[in-house]
Amino acid sequence: MIEETKKRLENIQAIEPYLNAMRNTSLGSWKTALNRIQAIHRYRSELLEILDVLNNEVESQPVPDPATPQNWVVIGSQKGLVSNFNRHLLDLLEEEIEDLTARPQTALPTVILISNRPSYFYSFFSKYTLQPEIVPFDYNLTHHSAARLAKKVASFASDGSALFYFYNQYAKSQNSIPVRQGSYQTAAALKTEKETERGSWPPYLLDSDAALLWEKIHDMLATLEFQEILTNSIASENAFRHRILEEAKNNTDRLISELSIELAMARKKEITKEIQELAVAAGLVQ
Questions:
Q1: Residue 226's pLDDT is what?
Q2: Structural domain tally of the chain?
Q3: How far is CA 107 from CA 10, 124, 185, 218, 263, in A?
Q4: Measured by CB atoms within 10 angstroms of the end CB, which terminus of the chain is less buried, N or C?
Q5: What SS3 class is residue 233?
Q6: What three-state secondary structure class fits 165?
Q7: What pLDDT does residue 196 have?
Q8: At what angle do helices 210-281 and 143-156 cross, to 10 degrees?
Q9: Phi-psi region of 114 (alpha: psi -120 to 50; beta: other; left: phi over 0)
Q10: Residues of the domain holding 126
């Protein structure tokens, strides 16, 4: 009994440092992503101020025609240990696909799946005879990385068609909600940005042509929108993972405490039994 309890305790104690390390990693990635989202908001507001100067007004976000062919960019998990992170996304996709199929003469969308766990989605899409284009989730919270990934997405999307993003949007208190977000640009805008030096933000634009600047800023805004959505998904995913690992850590601490008490009680009983046997052998008790 003691050996079995001792073995269980040692096994759990061996796992505990790994749980703590993964938990701290998720916490760091989550906080970094949230900080980057705030920086993206500030950067975009500055771009919009420049557009005001160039055009006196910023183009309003168009409402896509329901009959326009659609490209769906579905952003799943980057890693594992995310519980219902992908499941919630599939629930939203199911609602949207059923809504589309209920409309006569409406074509199903082209689906581009960004995920390092694509197999989770295969059986779902096969129900609707959809075969998604797979883009590995290779993104490190920089503009260069987002632009590179955007080009891969745009290569599968149909030009001139409506672009929609499906992802888990981070909310406060480690909560997330799956959302369908229409893009104010088509996929063509994601193709236009030239390859730049590696960096967190786009390079400076040095030009005096107002029309060219207007076009370039709109292209930047399209990529920046994509960058924010990716970053938001990463924040949401790491919040999910941190919560799961926090629960695992609490359960591990509880088990270690319970097993330590159980082991101490078992040792106490064994010591008491040995003392009694010694006392009997010495004739001190009957």
A1: 94
A2: 1
A3: 58, 18, 21, 29, 65
A4: C
A5: helix
A6: strand
A7: 54
A8: 110
A9: beta
A10: 35-243
**Which two tokens mark 141?**
């919270």
Strand order in the sheet with 176-182: 133-135, 110-114, 70-75, 162-170, 176-182
- Cβ atoms of 151 and 139 within 8 Å: the answer is no
SS3 179: strand
- Using one digit for the tens of pLDDT, what is the confidence trace for 7-35? 777 777 888 888 888 888 999 999 999 99
Amino acid at 260: S
Nearest to 157 by CA among 127, 135, 181: 135
Residue 277 located in a structural domain = no
Question: How many angstroms separate the Cα of 83 from the Cα of each of 77, 204, 240?
Answer: 10, 41, 7
Tell me whether residue 27 is in a domain. Answer: no
- Give the model confidence (pLDDT) of 233-282 as tens digits: 999 999 988 888 888 888 888 888 888 888 788 788 777 777 777 666 66
Give the DSSP letter string of 235-256: HHHHHHHHHHHHHHHHHHHHHH
Which tokens in the block code for residue 44? 């975009």
Q: Residue 169's domain is classified under what CATH number? A: 3.40.1380.10
- Asked whether residue 156 is domain-assigned, the answer is yes
Cβ neighbours for 283, distance < 8 A, ≥ 6 positions apart: none
* Inside any domain, residue 279: no
Residue type, 272: T
Which pLDDT does position 20 carry in this prediction? 87
Strand boundaries in the chain, DSSP class E: 70-75, 110-114, 133-135, 162-170, 176-182
Model confidence, pTM: 0.81
Distance CA 132, CA 89 (A): 15
